[in-house]
Every structure is written in C-alpha cells, then in structure tokens.
Amino acid sequence: MGDYITTYTKRHLKITNPSPEDIVLEDIAHALSMMVRANGHFPEFYSVAQHCIHCYEEAAARGYGEKTARFCLLHDASEAYLADITRPVKQYLPQYRAFEKQLQDVIYQKFLGSVPTEEERRKIKSVDDTLLYYEFEHYMGERLLEQPPEIRSHPVFETVPMKEIEEKYQKLAG
Predict the structure, then answer these.
(1) What are the φ and ψ backbone dihedral angles of 92, each rounded to 5 degrees?
(2) Domains of the chain by residue range
(3) Positive or negative, the Cα torsion across 16, 73, 144, 135?
C-alpha cells in the first residue's frame, strides 16, 4: 500500500504532495457525482456535484463572471480525493483542512490559472452558504438562518442520474 489514492481514471494521487498531472476533471466529476450531500442525511440522493453545479448557476445569476462561477463549480473539487466532511466536524481537523486547502489550490491553479482572491473567496462562500441554506430548507425543512439569503438562480433539488450530473459538471468546467 502506498501513500496515494487510486482514482477513477487509475491515477495515483498523493494527498500530501498532489501533482497537477494526477488531477483530472473526469475523476473530479465522476467522484463528486457519486458523493452525497449532508453526509447522506437528506431524504433522497443529492450529490456534491449537483450542489457545485447549482453554485455555478447562482454565481452566474449574480453576474460574478465566468471565472468566479467556475471557482464556485470547483470549490468542493478536493472532496473528490479527500471525501466530504461536514462543517461541524471539519472545524476540529486542522491537518485535514491544511491538506484540503493545498489540494484545492492545486486544482484551482490547474483549471483556472490562479487561486481565488479574497474578494472571490468571499463570493464563493456567499454562494456556497446560500445553496446550503436552500438545500436544508428543501430537504430537511430546516432554516439555518433567521433571514433567508437572496437567491437569484432557480435550483431544482431532485435526484438526477449520476452520469447526467457527471457530464454536466465536466461540460461546465471544461
């Protein structure tokens, strides 16, 4: 056993020292389309890739520009290699967060040529938090904030075949 994971496309990615050559869009889209949001607690299958597509669409609806919309699409891409850990737990895992940031920055550099600026990070977080709010309201009947955030896109929260989501994610990222 090595210190790497074997990806869908049979690459060996070292989590502690990720090489851009071992990171491919096909692996990201495939893995995220098969990962469920909310650690599997929503009443139906809703993938991380669907969430990311909705984030892309919300950023575009807000007029943030194509690059920021693509940052939003890719904002959870490191989870394709590390797994999705819920926010309440992740805050207590500083080493995981360091690996996640390092890998996420390599992904941003590879596909977008830079890491997000502070202003872009603020926009990504706003979009991500907005979708999180509406996902929980829809699936769990739970409002995570007293005041609902403004949403400009029209996400449809329903189960979509994984292959369809995988292809849409790749198309938007490509």
Answers:
(1) -100, 10
(2) 5-173
(3) negative
CB atoms within 10 A of CB 94: 9
- Give me the amino acid identity at 25: L
pLDDT, residue 84, reads 80
d(CA 117, CA 108): 11
Those residues whose C-beta lies under 8 Å from the C-beta of residue 126, and which sit 6 or more positions away, are 149
Listed in sequence order, the DSSP H helices in 3-93 are 25-34, 48-61, 66-74, 79-82, 87-90
Tens digit of each residue's pLDDT (9 = 90 or more) over 59-104: 999 999 999 999 999 999 999 999 888 888 989 999 999 999 999 9
Residue whose structure tokens are 């737990």: 89
Q: 5-173 has which fold?
A: Hypothetical protein af1432 (1.10.3210)
Q: What is the mean pLDDT of the chain?
A: 96
Q: Which two tokens stand for residue 138?
A: 């829809």
Contact 23, 100 (CB under 8 A): no
